[in-house]
Write a structure and sequence with these properties.
Jelly Rolls; mainly beta; 296 residues; six-stranded antiparallel beta sheet; seven-stranded mixed beta sheet; 1 helix
Length: 296
């Protein structure tokens, strides 16, 4: 089946390239694969992990424009400067978290480098083709689902705050009893944005407390806790855009499953979420797939 849409966001320039526009990937079958690294046991496997890997994609150029040159320059710079771009895949399947949301697409993304290009035909031919070697840097596709919780007494049931990436995320509404859902059968990595003003903010979900210690977040600022990548990160972003590394302010207990690990994945199912009620925060559930959804 053909993908609904694919684009690439340069990590260096920020430019978005529609890969089903003037430069065309077609079915992009190289993305529809999985490759777990693992070790063999006597009757089982162990140490399963999804590592960065290479895939091959073909560009079919039905119209020669300057878009191709801009794409090649940007992707080359991304590799040279170690600034991976985002490869984003869209489909018509409703998000599994909110199947009745009314949205007609969802988006899956991962960091990527385009490390090699090989022309397969003369560039002046009627339908020139270029093969690309793409490094899928995360080894996994992520679909972030946003859940926004307002401080008590705010009088607002809005389920949206501006986020610094222009992505078509799905939004979960407010509930009388605050809850969050991971519809996947396995734990999902989480990201949390704490909005100021607040001091040492924390939330508790599924027996784990996600907390910052020794942190005051001023009004207009926010702290973004990202548990999806390697390395993981905690960054404060001020009202004027200044960024401050707060990684050492995240409470990590004794690590995974300790009950106070700020990067603890969310177990499958629906869970009550509790906090002091004195600040707004966003709790992102990052659904994972080894390949983009097959249904469109």
């Amino acid at each position: 089946m053909a993908l609904n849409e694919i684009d690439y966001v340069s990590g260096t320039t920020g430019e978005v390239f529609d890969l089903e526009g003037d430069i065309m990937l077609g079915a992009a079958l190289g993305l529809r694969s999985r490759d777990w690294a693992y070790s063999l046991g006597s009757r089982d496997i162990y140490s399963q992990v999804r590592k960065a890997r290479e895939v091959t994609l073909s560009l079919y150029l039905y119209r020669m424009t300057d878009v191709l040159d801009r794409f090649m320059v940007a992707t080359d710079a991304d590799v040279r400067l170690s600034k991976p771009g985002w490869l984003r895949v869209y489909s018509e399947q409703p998000t599994p978290a909110h199947p009745s949301s009314g949205r007609d697409y969802n988006m899956w993304r991962q960091r990527a480098y385009i490390v090699k290009s090989e022309s397969q035909s003369h560039y002046r031919s009627a339908d020139p083709t270029v093969d690309l070697t793409v490094v899928l840097a995360d080894g996994v596709w992520l679909h972030p689902v946003e859940n926004l919780y307002r401080k008590r007494g705010s009088g607002s049931t809005s389920a949206y705050l501006d986020y610094p990436y222009d992505y078509p995320y799905d939004y979960a509404g407010m509930q009388d009893i605050a809850q969050v859902t991971n519809p996947d059968p396995s734990p999902a990595p989480v990201s949390i944005t704490f909005y100021g003003p607040c001091t040492d903010p924390y939330v508790t979900v599924a027996g784990n407390t996600y907390q910052l210690n020794g942190v005051t977040v001023p009004a207009g600022s926010r702290v973004e806790v990202d548990g999806t990548g390697e390395p993981k990160s905690i960054v404060m972003i001020s009202e004027n855009g200044d960024r401050t590394d707060l990684f050492d302010k995240g409470v990590r207990g004794t690590g995974l499953d300790s009950g106070t690990y700020i990067f603890q994945p969310l177990p499958s199912g629906t869970h009550t979420i509790s906090w002091s009620g004195g600040f707004d925060f966003t709790f992102w559930v990052n659904l994972q797939r080894s390949e983009p959804p097959w249904i469109s």
